[in-house]
Design goal:
With 411 residues, the protein is of the alpha/beta class. Helix content is 47%, strand content 13%.
Length: 411
Amino acid sequence: MTLSEELSWRGFINQTTLTNLTALDTEKWTFYHGFDASADSQTVGNLAAMMLDRCFMRHGHSPIILAGGATSLIGDPGGKDAERPLQSEETIAINVAKAEAQLQQIFRGYDFQLVNNLDWTRELTVISFLRDIGKHFSMTPLIQRDYIAKRIGEEGDGISYAEFSYTILQGMDYLYLYDTYGCTLQLGGSDQWGNCLSGVDLIRRARGAETHVITLPLIINKATGKKFGKSEDGAVWLDPTKTSVYKFYQFWLNADDKGVEGYLKIFTELDKEAIDSVMKEFKKNKKDRLAQKTLAYAVTTLVHGEEKAEAAKIASEVLFGGADPGALGAEEYQLLKGELPVVQAGKGDNLLQVLVEAGLASSNTEANRFLDEGAISVNGQKVSGGDRAVLRKGDNLVKRGKNSFAVVVIK
């Protein structure tokens, strides 16, 4: 499958200045893709963009990955109804470092140029910016852009010159990368179309050269109609300290049936034959959730590594798939301790009190009733009323009923 065919099949194309995508198959391109650093982690929405980049990399094109150390100090007004609060240079610098570490992880195995647009804007003077860059932009098309027109309209909150200049700064990035690296293609999200065109227009005016843009569509949860990657708790982050590996795996495992085939195309590198095979089996028995399991394992492996993905898979299967708790090892228990109540106890401690401390019973009386009813299991074994010395040294998985769990650690 050629690159143009793969991009179309995976659903990566929203808009492009290319008149024919097959141009991607007949020559090698140097492309760039910018990533925002206004937060201290990228999200699964950003991951979709990274998968687009990896698609280009697999086909032998030369990538430049840009961390927005300068533009993040201003803030992109696109999609915002009001002015963004400015963040300090120190905060943005920390965010850039974290973004670069995540980009290195996602793009491991590929050679790519990592740049920071603060490097060529830090020493730029106001006069140079206005004469060399600003003079090439006409105000009329800028103020007609939807997000700017909305902000400066009668019911808008207005827009500062700082945010208004964002699109010019992004255009300048493209010009710099064109001059320095011969970059002639920019990739971006659908919300960046206007900003990307600023660079194309600037290069045409300033250098008389033709460059191009491809944007990928916004990923929508077909079951809810909402932006994919937004949960009840907010964004799903790539940083495991913000979204744990276990929750990350569960997010993909809970993907909706309607959209899972599209997610497999966008968020994994499984080829058409493999995805068709998975979907064929999935449609035969949707309750088994083969498509979601395949998706969860593949994406968690990419972002967090195979060892963490395997641990999340085993832990999930034990908690909700009826798998033997004996499969839980140190790595799996480490994940579960971040998700379940954890109780420290001694070998001879009263099991009733342990159940209360773990939140599996409200009182000793209730704990005793649960035991008598056979509602309690330890490490997969039902605990009878008379057999209560079942906790082993180290980690134990205690379960009440179908879905209530705790980890009890015996010293």
